[in-house]
TrEMBL record:
UniProt keyword list: Repeat
Stored SUPFAM superfamilies: TPR-like
Name this polypeptide is given: DYW domain-containing protein
GO BP annotations listed: system development
Upper lineage: Eukaryota, Metazoa, Spiralia, Gnathifera, Rotifera
Annotated organism of origin: Adineta steineri
């Protein structure tokens, strides 16, 4: 029985993998050892997509050609059997061709574990010099090295390529973004003198989005405005552009771009919703969710996580419950979803719900523990947070765990517990030290906080966030001299950190106002506007009444029932005064205008308007919940406590 007859016989009668395997077992050993028979059977298995039997035959073939290797690797990749590909290269008997190396580098990049790195680097180092003119091969090697974090080696390889095409540039720029080197991606982009590909646009938009500084905004907007018409129909490019605009804070421009989409899909909606969340417009995100349901688009994991973040931003319990109840039950088997839900329920103040989710997770990971510790911390349940932290496996604890537990201690005033945990931490990162500085500053222990910063700076560069934590505590304790000292130090140490200097200037201005020095506050305000512009984050308050979520800003006149709301706020204020409340003028951060009083200004705060709205909708509401994107002012906090608001 010759090999050709065997092959034809199998081809004519085998209709399944099982039949092929049965015939293979019945063939004599001599027939299977025949290279022609082996190759024929191997090709048949590959044609039938029977990769397991093909791999068995591959191991038997003694004289494997370049074609056999390439075919086997391609088949294994098609079935995502990447470890088998690495097994194959452990014992490869031939000099790999460029095609084989391209496939290998792709597998190593995707796998990206220690074994893949070892194999990928080995074959890259042993690559024939004859292959150095193969752009496709070198580009695949650059992609692999970038995923390994070997940026310098990738750069060296990039320099070898004489005639670089847009794909090669794209691989380098993508690699820089993967390694969070966004400025380098933009540097390289500015050197390109070729027509950009659709992938290149997405990469640059992503780099600009991550940086969101003046340079990135200029490059990103210019690139978007000059983009060819044929690319404007590409949803992936446009979604990248929307993400970039949202991170720039250009919500209106992102909305205009979103409206140009004739057929919106899950990617488009998720990008837009995520953007609204970033820009503190979660109500718009909820409106898009209603549109998704009308268009009968399936709720997947990505949309679910974004919706959970939306609910966490708003923090209104009824909204959280309404949205979560619409999730398919299978999503609760997804630990990533469960972790997000724990965080959401914590922010909504429903700690029991967070506990139930936590207890439903079979094997809590570090994110699960951190989310639950954080939920306790946000609700001033510091002792419960400490107890959970102590029961958390030591090997799971990471930097975020330390930050969460120290924050929990800080918000509950547990100084001894915070010190105890802080001293146990072997590797204290700048984030961990910053959290401890914040804890001490909240308790007005400024000497200890400054000492921590001083000790840190003996071996490290100064960190602006530490000073912001210190300044925030000084603001709360109204220590003008200390605040000015901290601000001047920040100006000296961080002249280019405009975002933090702007925020620090706002705090310093507020301290001056709280002490009645409105001239100094006005001077600081004018200096800030001159140097940083007039952009300050707007304080928002949300409340829900009769199924309607309403958003308020300070001095808000946008609601159709504004007159009633303000009248009710005034009535509530008068009632409080009868019970002995004295309005705290120190929370007014600007000079009073003509016809204004301390009472009228404080009654216009967003929290007051939200409370008043609850009363005009129902004279005796049984439950009032107010959530904010920023801290509550001290005078309004008194009102919230009086009404036992959540």
């Amino acid at each position: 029985m010759n090999s050709l007859f065997i092959f034809r016989r199998i081809l004519s009668i085998a209709s399944s993998s099982k039949q092929i395997y049965t015939i293979m077992t019945k063939l004599s050993q001599n027939s299977l050892n025949n290279s022609s028979t082996q190759t024929s059977l191997f090709q048949l298995c590959i044609q039938r997509h029977d990769i397991n039997n093909a791999y068995r035959l591959f191991l038997k073939i003694t004289n494997k050609s370049d074609y056999i290797y390439a075919t086997m690797i391609k088949g294994l990749i098609s079935k995502n059997m990447l470890d088998k590909v690495l097994d194959l290269f452990d014992e490869i008997k031939i000099q790999p061709s460029p095609i084989i190396l391209i496939m290998l580098f792709g597998v190593c990049a995707r796998t990206n574990n220690d074994r893949a790195k070892q194999t990928g680097r080995k074959f890259h180092n042993e690559m024939s010099k004859d292959f150095l003119n193969d752009n496709i091969l070198l580009t695949s090697a650059i992609n692999m090295l970038m995923r390994f974090g070997d940026v310098k080696k990738a750069e060296d390889l990039f320099q070898i390529i004489k005639k670089k095409d847009i794909i090669t540039y794209g691989a380098m720029m993508k690699g820089y973004t993967l390694n969070h080197m966004y400025d380098k991606a933009l540097d390289l982009f500015e050197q390109i003198q070729l027509n950009l590909s659709n992938v290149s646009y997405s990469i640059i938009f992503n780099a600009c989005a991550q940086l969101s500084n003046d340079r990135a905004k200029q490059i990103g907007r210019k690139l978007l405005d000059g983009m060819p018409e044929n690319f404007k129909e590409n949803k992936y490019i446009q979604s990248s552009a929307i993400d970039m605009l949202m991170k720039f804070g250009d919500v209106k421009k992102a909305e205009i771009l979103f409206k140009t989409f004739e057929e919106k899909d899950i990617i488009t909606y998720s990008t837009m919703m995520k953007g609204y969340n970033i820009n503190n417009e979660p109500l718009k995100s909820l409106k898009l969710f209603e549109e998704i349901k009308k268009n009968h688009i399936k709720i997947d994991e990505i949309i679910s996580v974004i919706l959970i973040d939306t609910c966490a931003k708003i923090g209104i319990r009824s909204i959280c419950e309404s949205i979560v109840n619409q999730f398919p039950s299978y999503l609760y088997n997804n630990q990533y979803i469960c972790n997000a839900l724990i965080n959401m329920w914590g922010k909504a103040g429903l700690v029991k719900n967070a506990q139930q989710i936590f207890e439903s997770v079979n094997q809590p990971d570090v994110i699960t523990y951190n989310a639950m510790i954080n939920a306790y911390g946000k609700n001033r349940m510091g002792l419960e947070a400490v107890d959970l932290y102590r029961n958390m496996p030591n090997n799971l604890r990471n930097e975020i765990s330390y930050v969460c537990i120290l924050n929990a201690c800080s918000h509950s005033g547990l100084l001894d517990e915070a010190y105890s945990i802080f001293n146990e931490i072997y590797h204290k990162t700048k984030q961990v030290i910053t959290t401890m500085v914040d804890c001490l500053s909240r308790l007005f222990l400024f000497d200890e906080a400054k000492q921590l910063i001083e000790d840190y700076e003996k071996c490290n560069a100064p960190y602006s966030v530490m000073y912001m934590a210190l300044l925030s505590g000084a603001r709360n304790s109204r220590q003008s001299h200390l605040s000015q000292e901290i601000y001047k130090r920040m100006q000296l140490l961080f002249p280019n950190e405009k975002h933090h200097l702007r925020s620090a200037s706002v705090l310093l201005c507020n301290i001056s106002s709280s002490l009645g020095d409105h001239e100094e506050a006005q001077a600081l305000r004018l200096d800030r506007i001159k140097e940083f512009g007039n952009k300050v984050q707007v304080g928002l308050s949300w409340t829900e009444v009769n199924g309607e979520v309403v958003q308020f800003t300070a001095h808000d006149q946008s609601h159709p029932r504004s007159k009633e709301i303000y009248a009710e706020a005034q009535r509530i204020s008068s009632e409080l005064i009868k019970y002995g409340h004295v309005h705290d003028a120190s929370w007014i951060t600007r000079p009073l205008r003509e016809h204004e009083t301390v009472e009228s200004v404080l009654c216009s705060h967003s929290e007051r308007l939200a409370i008043a709205f609850n009363f005009i909708e129902g004279r005796k509401p049984s439950f009032i919940q107010i959530t904010k994107n920023l801290r509550v002012c001290g005078d309004c906090r008194t009102l919230l406590v009086f009404f036992n608001c959540s």
